[in-house]
User: What shape does this take?
Amino acid sequence: MNSTSSSNESPGLVCSDGNPDHVTGRAHMLRALSEELVGPAVKGPEIDLDAVITGQFPENFRRDGPYLQKGSGEEILCVEPPALRYGIGVLFPWGTTQESDGKDDSPAEPTLETTLATLNPLTTGAEQQSALTSHAQDSIRKIEGRNLSGSGEPQDDDYDLSSANMRRPNSMALSFLAKLSANDVMIVRATGGRYEQVKIPVDKNRQTTWWRRYAISIEVRFSGTRLLNNVKAARITAETVEASGLGPIDLHVEAFCRPTRDDGQRLITVCLINRTTAGRGIHGRSIFQSAFEVTFESVTGAHFLPYPKPVRKRLDDEEQSLEMLYRDFETFAIGHGGGADWEKLSATQTATKVRAVSLPAIETPSITPAVTRMDGTELEVQMAPLAGLVPDNDGAASLQEIVDSYANWISEREADVPRLGAEHSVAAQRHIEQCKNCLKRMHKGLAFLREDETAALAFRWANEAILAQQLRSSRIARSVDIQNGRIVFDSPYRDVDLSIPSSGRGKWRPFQIAFLLMSLRSAVISDDDKRETIDLIWFPTGGGKTEAYFGLAAFSAFYRRLSDPNDIGVHVLMRYTLRLLTAQQFQRASGLICAMEAIRRREEDRLKSEPFSIGIWLGGETTPNSRSEARSIARQLQRGDDYVINKLLVTKCPWCSAQLGPIKSKSRNAPKAVGYHDNGVTISLRCSDDRCVFHGGLPIFVIDEDIYERKPTLIIGTVDKFAMLAWRPGARALFGLDDEGTRVASPPGLIIQDELHLISGPLGSMTGLYESVIEELCTDGRSGEVVKPKIVCSTATIRRFRQQARALFGREDTALFPPPGLTVADSFFSSYAKNEDGSLSRGRIFVGVYAPALGSIQTAEVRTLTALLQAPCALPDKARDPWWTVLIFLNSLREIGTAATLFQSDIPDRLKVLRKRLGIDFKEIRRLYEIMELTSRLRSDDVPKAIEALEIVAEGRPKAGKYPVDACLASNIIEVGVDIDRLSLLVIVGQPKSTSQYIQVAGRVGRRPFERPGFVVTIFGPNNARDRSHYEKFRSYHERLYAQVEPTSVTPYSLPVLDRALHAVMASYIRQTCNQDLANSPRPVPEKELAELRSLLRKRVNIVDSQEIDTLDEKFGDRLREWRKWQRTEWRTSRVDGDVGLLTPAGSYLPAEDWEFTWPTPLSMRNVDAECATEITREYLTSDDIEKEEPDVE
Assistant: This one.
């Protein structure tokens, strides 16, 4: 990181409280990006260009500039010709193709490739150094090494097509719907710049080429009479044209007018066209910084109307809701080859001006979970009083205030319904009814706490546990060293006083506590009327959904233990889809469990002796399947073996933050790992600080065998792991079943599914099929009544959630929380954040980069990243941090490999060009130290290290080996779980495949908008039609971003899914619910049990998709006949002795003839590639055979 470029705080970059003004810093970043891609870059002193042409140079003359023209202040390009310098907002001469580059008024004009070589022949040794340090080169080599290994996510085939022979843009246009009269005039004002070549003498024998800018403008007027005087589509010519500065440019403004059903309305497309012929070149005949705006000169109030939408006869309930919620966000123009913008008339559905822009930018509102009282103060619910830690205050009043405030808000919204009009009345009434239902459940939950002593006590302890977890998890890790055989820490052990308020912690957000009140009764009372209702928390990224369901998990676990202290076992299944998120949430949940266990030890007379505990249930690549493997890993870590993957995961005590696992000790003979205790049977995790209450052992289990034996209270895992039910009969212990399949304890009573939107497509369909068995395993029928588990889900983006939940879980009812209000801006529990004056607070700025003039998305990537990397160097040191690390999201691993290559050469070279052009010293150029990757290809123990590296602050001169990350190349692994407050800058290369993914990725930056707002730049592929469409509708798309989320597809009983996994579900059911004989061998065929499963599946299909009942019956019958016919004695095919079992891991190799008697069975719910094996045989053709073969006949 550079520490040059002035350490003094610049004016305008410091807030009144002395902290850096990052809003001004973001404006600087946007300006730098615009100057690099669009122009003009108004930098440097003014010089008399005419004098310089004659050899009269000013003092301290720099051949490379930067300079401005004296008098006009217009830009002078000293380093690159304009068509190489700028890539956005360029209208080229008519008929120009990509291969026209380099042809211009001078045959010796430099190309981009030769620019560096010719900039300055007297380059010093220091200036020849690369902007890429050796440390960064090592980082890039690691990334490229992973590319060669081919590991990780599947590759993407969505290539950006070559544009070598494509015509370059010579026009931009805007379409809109106008309401006008014959007396009105439509005015089009276009602006831009052109550049003229000038020769500057360097010495007697040499000249260099500069380019001087001339501002151009054109104003064109179209009369209302001519616009309205057509009965069919027609081209309308302008009546008056005023232009200046055009020079040799032949610039046209044309209008195409189409009538509508309303005589006073016209659908108009205005085009700005460069009809100049290319001639000898393009630099002096192109228009740069192209833009135009359309207004009306009117005495009758001519204006722009919302752009027409496709006519649909009937909208479903969700579409009606979206139309109502986003009724204030209409589209007033569509761009063609450019973005569209407009100025809307306040409180109306009309606009007064529309604009065609080259670099569209929009700031989206921030969502706040805060609820404000009438007097302007925030409504807060403190945890300490609810936990019984504040004398004479049990916190009940704050709960009642939440409920009462919500009731008042609903009444106010209900009064607003008549004003919405008939088109929205049905949706509005439905929303009000949903809000009332939510309020009713909150009242019911509040009464439950008042009337049920067990619930009140469980609620009190749950609040204490969440409070302790919040306060303790915020502390940084206490590093360990071993000195003279003793463990020492870099900071002392400190306990936490829960009664003392902590800044920003120890408070429930209103939506969190409201969700808890709404759902707590149905989570613990088996006959509650909402027990089988799926409660779905919908809240934007970073809102605090995790704490909400953590609170419910703690409450329900305490309630179960208080109700029956002997009913021990797994109570909560918490499932995720990505291992990064799972591992991160495991750390947070471990802190919660430690807090609950500390309470249990204190209250052992009521909670008895069985500890509260947590287990992480992941694949063998992340955690050990066996104790022997875990012990081997621990021994290798103790020796300090660098190559071993730390699958024991826990690297910090959740209670006191003492370091666990591998350590860096100065003592040569000291152990290289602490806290992993081998007791001769397994590895137990112990805090390394003997003053910690968990020094004797942490209630955390990471080994599959330990989890099956200890049956922890809470299990965190990925949905993929549940595919192992067909392979691991011992997993039945997690569901309260003994070896004979008899229920001996309650099954998990609470299932929490995070990030529901990610369980879609093939993964969702597979999950939905397995879910039939999982729910059955979690169903308790011992009392004579069927008690199903409570299911809670959360998401930040989703459409058609009811259909998806029904397909996944077979439940008829799903309740969204918080239910929407009458506008997207306010649902009581979430609203658009506003300033004291009522204006919207700062949010994320989204910028669209579409640069067809640059020819490829890679070139646009280089230009964009170079500008964003260099720009923070011009900021004061304390203002740089939000913008120093650029997070780069790429849609495939192939693109990550390409980006790594760009960082190796193109970007450092471009930084040198930028240095010349900006006229800065070599020491002020951005030096790149840390280029990192964050993808699924990382080792499981490298992921936390990567997250930790991203948290290093860029301020002052960095310590060696502790460089802040310059650029992080990331894949879809960052969609969830990367919660790093310092990150504010994101570049998305290519529009992501779904809006849901786009929202989740963008949510990684700007998570503290009031302090450091986010800045998101999306680079669109110039030859990708979908990308171009998003660019042309940039503002429309972002104003209705959540409404653009695509519906998810889940089809668990379709034929492809049944083909792939129905037999796995059959095996899972038998191996988990039947006696040991059947768990160990599939013979004899368990006819009775399979008939029960068939009946269970048929009931579920009738709920999900009754049309698939025949498909299920047919496929189930096929599998049953195969089971009977094959008479396999083993469940699993053995690679050791070659015995073919009923199940063989999908994708593994078997001789072709053996596949006729076994089922390929998934080990995961995702797609797997088959293994291939070569076979040497004696069946080959001799040369004589080849000669005898007859030729092919057409």
Observations:
- The radius of gyration is 33 Å.
- Residues 422-451 form the longest helix (30 residues).
- Residues 1055-1161 form one domain.
- Residues 484 and 667 are 8 Å apart (CA to CA).
